[in-house]
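Look over this record as teaching material.
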Amino acid sequence: MTDHLLNLHGDVLAAMRRGPKHFTKLAFVLTEADEPADTELSHFRDRIIAAGPGDELTALWHRTLTGWDLAEQADWSAAPPRTDARRADTYTRLGFGSDLRKALDEAVPVFKEPGPTVISKEFVSWYSRDLANVRSFYWNSYEQLLRRKGWSDAAVSSLDEASHAVVERLSDPTRTEAYGARGLVVGYVQSGKTANFTGVTAKAIDAGYRLVIVLGGTLNLLRGQTQRRLDMELIGQENILRGADPSDADALVGIDYQDDEDWPAKFVSHGHRPFNIERLTTRDNDYRSLLQGIRALEIEKREPHLPLYVPENLHRAAARVMVVKKNKSVLTNLVKDLKKIGPILREIPTLIIDDESDQASVNTSDPKKWESGQIQRTAINGLISQLLSLLPRAQYVGYTATPFANVFIDPSDGEDIFPRDFLISLPRPAGYMGVQDFHDLDGDGAAEETHVRGIYEESGDRLQEAMDAFVLTGALKLYRADHGVPEGPFRHHTMLVHESVKMDDHADLALRINTQWHQAGYTSHEGHARLEKLLTTDFARYADDGLPAPDAYADLRPYVSRARQLINAGGNPVVVVNGDTDRYFSQIDLDFDRTPNVWKILVGGTKLSRGFTVEGLTVTYYRRTTRQADTLMQMGRWFGFRPGYRDLVRLYIGREEPLTKTQTVDLYEAFEAICHDEETFRSQLSRYAELVDGKPQVTPAQIPPLVSQHLPWIKPSGRNKMFNAELVEIRSPGQWVEPTAYPTSAADLRHNTEIWRPALDSLSQDISVFVTLSEDDRGNYIRYPAKTTILSHDHLLGIMSTLAWGRPDLFDPHLAYLKDSSDAGCATDDWALVLPQTSGRTSVSARILGSQPLTLVQRKRNARGVFNRISGMSHRQSAERIAGLHPLSEDDPFASQFHQPRRGTVLLYPVVDPDLGDPAGLVTGGGVDPAKVVMAAAFIPASNPTAKSAACLRFRAIDSAHAESPFVSAPA
């Protein structure tokens, strides 16, 4: 049955090329009847109110309104994007009344979630929202599939926005001059990057890209997973069948997925298509050097005398898609075939998607060993470079969760894959279990207590407990499925054990686990008693109150029996995953797509990390060390989506693992450190992503210095992937600067205390009382006393310049900023020095080098020898008022008294590390040894809205374009 209302609204919205227009007037113009009933807005309102899931009219308006909500530049509204005011302006332009506005707001709420962070060169705008709506067949189909899968409006809108941000920075496929953009998209580990590049592929094909090459993993298992995902969600049944009658068994011989339990029900169906998508690879077959492959790449033109990229040819031609391994022989065959095709290659708008782009794709050859300065490339990097040169209209977009190797690529190497045009950091998706769910980065919360179980020397290896947790969580999943929780996410249930990279170790460990499993007594009284205790002391304590739970272990016992049977299916609960070949993976039958239920304990190393999605992962046992941050991050398979069982997820992790013969490391703190570095990287990208006067503050070539290294024993990436660059300055007006890497030697600590002595001697004898007000304006407040003085800028600069540091390279860029006190620099003439004091029963005060008594503060260094945080959060608000960052308040009179234009604030703390002893025990005769005190400071420069100072970076980068410059180590 024809949906006249949908057709009318589609025509009207398609005519709104430059933003919203009066809907009813435009509808009358576009309809043939004098007074068509469908133009009555009341009918539209009633339809929206009554619409159920999957209603196409609601989906149409969702796409349209969200596009207008997100538009960065809107000629028809002065309101900023993502606001109610922008939406109100939209309704006014459309001529919608209050009833319809209310209905639409309920059906399509204003999208206010954080969008992607974009660092980009200036680009020629061609892919507007209007164009995207006009050519959107495959994207619309993909969007509808996601909604049928249960994606929320917010999740779909976020994907729409992020994928649009990628496509608009590609080259216009119809432009005359060939240009190949290079970009990088940074997601989170196991956070849905495939969904993003599927969306990008759909939009790019709609826009006119006619060859898509996806570089998908180094094993056919991984390549096949990506192929299946694209076939199922984008390419669709009709393009797979290629005209074959689905009811004719003979016609289906040799056609993919006839043995797949999800075919055809879960594969998208397009019906009539404006153009086809031809598959050059299949689920089981990678690209092969065949004559058929060559012909398939020869794209026919409707107008032979015109180039392929002109609209008359481009939008009538079929698209070609291939998913290939990052394999030397496969890519060599592809390059060889492309060379045979001839001049039309220069006319084909091509998109190359590189999944896990920091693996194999990066050139890791040593520049010092190149002969006569000629670039020598590793095999895969060289073949990718050849692809890009053969296809001058090819756009390269890398995807990774660990971007450091990519941003360290030499930006002066024009034939390499450095993301010279854009770098996009995706927002954390809704429902994702990530860093914040396992680490309390701000010091508060219950993430560690809920999900993390440390393995210490005194605790034993806790392997049996982890296995018990695996059985128990399997039983709880089965219980939940029986009590109304959707069972789809419980199809697979896995435990990952990762102790070593060595295959011999894997075999020994698998034997040990298998032995323990069969001796665990899961059918005995002792075994059930052990599980009951674990349920009571752990899982019941942290259970999600919104999910069904057994009243007693007796209610769960039948499900324990079933879980044990599923795990022990085949007689062995353990699967070792460490092979290097596709044949190996086919032998172990570890295909999560084709196997109905994988309930196993997986033992392995590198193969269980990058690119390999461990479905149903609930319990992880992790004890492997590595010296590379990106490698360690990729081991974090416990990150991901855990619908219906996120409260059951447990991480058993080594807290005292040997790194050398004499050194042990805390792997949980190591993960926390690199997660903190990653969040810092993302937050700095966000800070510099905002345009200034319509132009970018930084380009991707200026990103490398933003990469930090806080762990002395672990680098951001492999040494052979690190670009040589040195960060020389960070300008941060209105931002706290809080050094945390202080020295540990007694001599350095004494030296630093001596440097601060004149400032301590100048502190007032009187107390200043500062007030921290509640942000919710409920009248709550915190008062704290402090000793204060005023330091000239030169005095503070002299102090900070002569202090000893544990990591001077981390503070030097901030020091360079402080040295410029002009309006273009830190814009600060003097500083209010504030030393918070306490007077409680546990408070300890002491004289420092003869000063008046000052409160000692206890802060503990972490495993990497630095402090997580120095300043108290409750102390910062008044300091920010003094610096002019916040308005003055009558309730905080001392802050108002100290405030002056161009005055910054320093919070200073005499810190005692508890490893050196209890503060009270260190005080002798009312004084404390200056060699046992860390004089730690946090400062915020003056904030002045009219000052010229702006957040920016200054670099001294060394690349191949400056051969006279020496190589230096990458910044930490």
